[in-house]
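Researcher: Good morning. I'm working through a list of sequences from a screen, and I'd like to move beyond sequence-only analysis. For each chain I'm collecting a predicted structure so we can compare shapes side by side. This is the next one on the list. No need for commentary yet; just the structure.
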Amino acid sequence: VSTSHLQLAAFALGTVGWILCTISMGTVEWRVWHVDNTTIISSGIAWVGIWKVCFISYLHVSPGYKEQFCRKFNGYDFSVPHEIYAAQGLLLIAMFVGLLGLTATIFALRNVYMGVTQKTLITRFFLLGGFFYMFAGLCILIPVSWNFYSVVQNQSIAFPPSYYMPSSPAAQEAGAAIPIGIVAVILLLLSGTFSLSYRFPVTTNTAMK
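Model: Good morning. Structure tokens for this chain:
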């Protein structure tokens, strides 16, 4: 048990990283667009996520009432940039793979704390969990970096007319989902490193298989 403290920390960090991954995936504030025309986008701010785009409008839904209008991305909207669709797939993969990493780590820790002395079994599941953590972290890093680059370059998006969005903002900045994703990447990579560093104790009184 005393040799698995880092792996217990890996499980804790991996759990937080996996939760932050799901939060980032569901958050609409990936890109914050500042627009000049406030005829429909009343607040002058729109949020572009990886699943939908949202803004506050006083006119579009009910005149005189503050409403949030959202439009989900469709698979046939070819004007939506590739980094958004890539983020959808990669974050779903990261969430699934991260869950596998947590499961493998739980199984290995269970054997450690129950006194199971099967070296191969415990070591392989810690290594498997570490691999899953690292892979999940990389799956998050790619879309986060790609979308952050698009924000820095102030890239435009030719939204269809039904989105009620301009093709380019006056300015844009990274939303809350990007730093959340960065923290998730760091935690998952640390978890992977800790899990992969496990070494089964070698003692003369321990039966190893």
